[in-house]
Amino acid sequence: METVEVEARSVEAGTQVRHELAMVGRYRQTNAEADRLEAAAAGTSEAARVQDEARLTRWVATASNRVTLSFEWLNLKNPGAAAVYDDETRLETLLQAKEYLAVGRSQPRHTAAAADWHHARSERYALCAVATIGLLVLLTVARISPVRLRPWVASIAVAAGAVVIPVLAFSEWRV
Length: 175
Prior knowledge:
Largest sheet: 2 strands, antiparallel
Radius of gyration: 29 Å
Number of strands: 2
Strand order of the largest sheet: 1-2
Distance between the termini: 20 Å
Shape: elongated
Number of helices: 5
Strand content: under 5%
Order of helices and strands: HHEEHHH
């Protein structure tokens, strides 16, 4: 299990770094296009329009990096078309962060405790689903029952829902 967890964290971090490298590539490409437009503006009669287009292209490149929340743009060196991204350092940082948040290696008691907690939580969610379906059945019965029984059945369903669902959803079961 631990080997699978370590490999999964490694693959996840590698995938994120490759995604960030692709974003840096798009950022460099957009800035290179802005540089090309600025160079082309010098010799044309429509220099102001081409300069505005270059400025807008550079603004798009800068805005795109601020919109992406999963990327550390502070790690980008030499902004613009010559941007440099240290992917090896970023990969190591991601792996260390994920290692810090995970259960430590070679700690079978902690791994088993975490598995037990997740199992208990999944049981609670399954019971919540069953209880919700039971309450829906009770409310449906209340809806189709005779008028004189309807308030009683609906009251039982509401009372059961007000007690059972929160208890199942918010209780901590320890195995």
